[in-house]
Amino acid sequence: MRILFADDGVPYDGRTPAEDPLGGGERAVVGLARALSARGHVVTVATPIIDPEYVDGVFWVPLPMDEGERSLPDEVDVLVAVRRPSLLSLPVRPGRRMLWVMGRPDALIRPTVRARLAHHNPELLYVSDAQKAAGPAAHATGASVLAPGVSRAILDIEPTDPTWPPVAVTTAHPVHGDLDWLLDRWTAGVAPVLPDARLHVYSALLSAGVAGEKVPAEVRPMVERVQALADAGVEVREPQPEAALAEAWKTARVFLHPGQPWDFACWSLADAQALGLPAVARPLGGAPERIANGESGMLTPDDAAFENVTVQVLRDNGLHKGMAEEARAPIRLRSWDDAAEDLERAWLSFLR
């Protein structure tokens, strides 16, 4: 099949995950496009890049900004609009349109979006069952769920015993409130019990702020807070390309995921689990679908439970080892090749 992915967010191509930090949604596009190409499909991805590239069997082309630009194929079997319904209107002739919903599905009920969906009649592709359940009750073509995969740069990392003092890692966002909540839990219930433990916060915004660079006003208080918590073991780390991040995380002891009700993808949580990193999380958004509760991690019902379980995983070698082994169990490891096979099966069924 001829497949076109279109994403109008940040510029990236198939080399970017190995060279620069990249968001989970963008890495998902890279991973799925590469896997579909390896299965014999002709795959093109349009993003706001300047020059076309051919990487790992995938054609990467500039997303047209003007009507006269012609960088896209004239005709494809499937057009996958990533996140934005407006991309369903690209000047190509698709046999089938699909909207890959990665964020809050309530955006799909806006009148302008509903009109666009009614006009193009796309299938909605969700990243979790919880996201699908939160989406519109009815749509013309239907909806399906594609559970995300994990890149080979992460799956192929060899497990390593965690370091001591113990390290917890998180990618909690500095503005949405989840990092603030997590720091409360750390200072109230973790650091006083394990004063040598470290919490590594991976954040581009906080890294810039700590380095003295200008950051949005709403980020500044969090920059000051994490700097004030250095004595409690809180450290800000810069996001890394996939392989470097995997190397950094593989010697950590636990991944802390406060989460949000609208975070249905939980990209970093999936990566951490694939690395054999036990997780402690709140049961929000897509987290219950990324963790085998009580086996590869724990979904905690309240603040005290989050603190207590975090302490247990940080200091109990037996508990940590059992959860790490479960997280890396073959039955739980899902690559983008697996996701591509699932999606291909659904598409071929439609085209018969």
Automatic annotation (TrEMBL):
<keyword id="KW-0808">Transferase</keyword>
<dbReference type="InterPro" id="IPR050194">
    <property type="entry name" value="Glycosyltransferase_grp1"/>
</dbReference>
<dbReference type="Pfam" id="PF13692">
    <property type="entry name" value="Glyco_trans_1_4"/>
</dbReference>
<dbReference type="GO" id="GO:0016758">
    <property type="term" value="F:hexosyltransferase activity"/>
</dbReference>
<protein>
    <submittedName>
        <fullName>Glycosyltransferase</fullName>
    </submittedName>
</protein>
